[in-house]
Amino acid sequence: MEEEEGRRGGGERREPKGGGGEGRRAAGLKVGFYNKRCPSAEALVQQAVAAAFKNNSGIAAGLIRLHFHDCFVRGCDGSVLIDTTANNTAEKDAVPNNPSLRGFEVIDAAKKAIEARCPRTVSCADIVAFAARDSVALAGNNLTYKVPAGRRDGRISTAADASNNLPSPLSNATELVGNFTRKGLTAEDMVVLSGAHTVGRSHCSSFTNRLYGFSNASDVDPTISSAYAFLLRSICPSNSGQFVPNTTTDMDLMTPAVLDNKYYLGLANNLGLFTSDQALLTNATLKKSVDEFVKSESRWKSKFAKAMVKMGSIEVLTGTQGEIRLNCRVINSGSSAAGIELQMTTTSSGDDSAEQFTKIATK
């Protein structure tokens, strides 16, 4: 799901907020979290996504990717939405995200509608998760799943974290499995979630390494179909090593706007766009999963829905951690930097919960 922009950075990985493996998917999320707090929350997000999709069906791929890029950097905390400031370059402006990451205006529209109904109640992180789910439903012919909610918004967003945590389109199988394992996801989860590459577009810079000067023995990566390579070279021509920076192409040649199993069929026919796509066939265990999904779209869809929920729980902030951001692009005024945070306090009466937000001095 690392589609689009380019050659990702390496470097040391930021240590996760939680422990290892399953422990990183923190407790505290619940399906129907806003049923009493803000009953219209999920419907308002759905309306914003549907309106954007009607105008441009490609936004579905963008919103699915936005959720992935949020969760893989500091967990699913909405930090990918925060704008760069004079003193900090945020995640959204890291090389893996800029200029390819999109969908921010859809999140803004949903947040604006929700704030008008339920002020200071619904986190930006949850809106991103809901928007991804609604995008899956629209692009996947009503493929849907329930989203546990209750995420809180983070206050830190740095380009370095994005570069150090997001998988690269140049990754090999070992690197991909390691990247996902560090987030508490399995090798099969990685193959399943890679299926999101069946929708969306990619910039030339993410795959031209396979088209020009691949090795001393071959100018073109031999694992890519020669006909496909010819097509891609016509879309992304070489001109003294300079490629048209804004040129994009579909990730999936067959059904580029539909979330289906054609991505895996493409891999089986050497039509994977990225090095990291075709790498799924270089490992016997990963290839077994690819072959399974070539044969059964329904099995992939079932596993994809479960993997999206699992991914959406990575290193989440819950309870009184973080904040409920009022503007998804900016941390709350007077929060961590000023020693004040918006803290949620919950009182229970039977099965009902009422929430209050109070300013708590932290200094």
Anisotropy-based shape: globular
Question: Looking at the chains present, what oligomeric state does this protein adopt?
Answer: single chain
Q: From the alpha-carbon coordinates, what is the Rg to the nearest angstrom?
A: 20 Å
Distance between the termini: 41 Å
Question: Level of helix content?
Answer: 25-40%
- Counting DSSP H or I runs of 4 or more residues, the number of helices is 12
Low-confidence stretches: 2-26, 337-363
The topology string of helices and strands comes to HHHHHHHEHEHHHHEE
Quote the CATH topology of the largest domain.
Peroxidase, domain 1
Strand line-up in the sheet with most strands: 1-2
Q: Round the mean pLDDT to the nearest integer and report it.
A: 87
Give the total of beta strands: 4
Tally of discrete structural domains? 2
Level-2 CATH architecture of the largest domain: Orthogonal Bundle
The biggest beta sheet reads: 2 strands, antiparallel
Kindly estimate the percentage of residues that lie in beta strands according to DSSP. Answer: 5-15%
Which structural class fits the helix and strand makeup? mainly alpha
The level 1 CATH classification of the largest domain is Mainly Alpha
Region (Disordered): 1-24
GO molecular function: heme binding; lactoperoxidase activity; metal ion binding
EC number: 1.11.1.7
Active site: 69
